[in-house]
# Entry
Amino acid sequence: MESLSKLHNKYYKHLLLFSVLLLVSSFVYLGFFYSQNNDFIYKDISLTGGTTVTITDNIDAVKLKEDLNNKLEEMNTREIYDLITKEQKALIIETKTDGETAKLILEEYLGYELTSENSSFEFTGSTLSENFYKQLLIAILFAFVFMGIIVFILFRTFVPSVAVIISAFADIIMTLVVVDLFGIKMSSAGIVAFLMLIGYSVDTDILLTTRLLKRSEGSLNQRIHGAFKTGMTMTLTSLMAVLVALLIVQSFSIVLTQIFTILSIGLIFDMFNTWITNVSILKWYMETKK
# Structure
């Protein structure tokens, strides 16, 4: 414990520099991504508008995509499997092609009529999707602003409050970079997952800041270590629960799969930004106050 404390005392500013460089690199990547895609994310049908078709049949998704890729605009497919037997139960097709045209093309390809008994069609207009997307972004902005206000009210000290906000913000930005690198097409559920991530991100930061600022027993390193044990237990418990849920739902729910994927990535970055970024800023601040 003592040797680790001495090591941390010597190198915590280097760790802070590393986290700053990582955050700056994330901004650079997102800037490049925006210049290429005119947005910070890949959007799915729920955010761009288009048709979602669910066919309850055992269909070769790879072959269908190869055969119809030139006929259905920006087509994506996903199989739905039975959780127990792993048997394919349905195929979901997403495309920007309108519903009537998509239905005719699919019926010609499959060789039978698509009815309400063997399929379902959902169409979302581009204007409605764009407005919904803007409203979700505004919701995230408001959530972040109100979170910042609460943090300032709790601690009433500029540097520790900013450290909490920076750490939570870094969680969001770094998670977004990984989502883009994986090529995940974000749905409205994915945006909601980022809203949830704000809450997950800030709890351990508040725990850490409270332990360091409002408690006086023990040395600074001892208080950091105590907060670390409690905070890591909280985060790892949440991460394990999310990963187990992800394994269960990935075969039958696109919406839940995306939510749990984003949360698991975010929780990993939360550990980094709480116990590297936030700890380094707070430690520097506390030592400067002496």
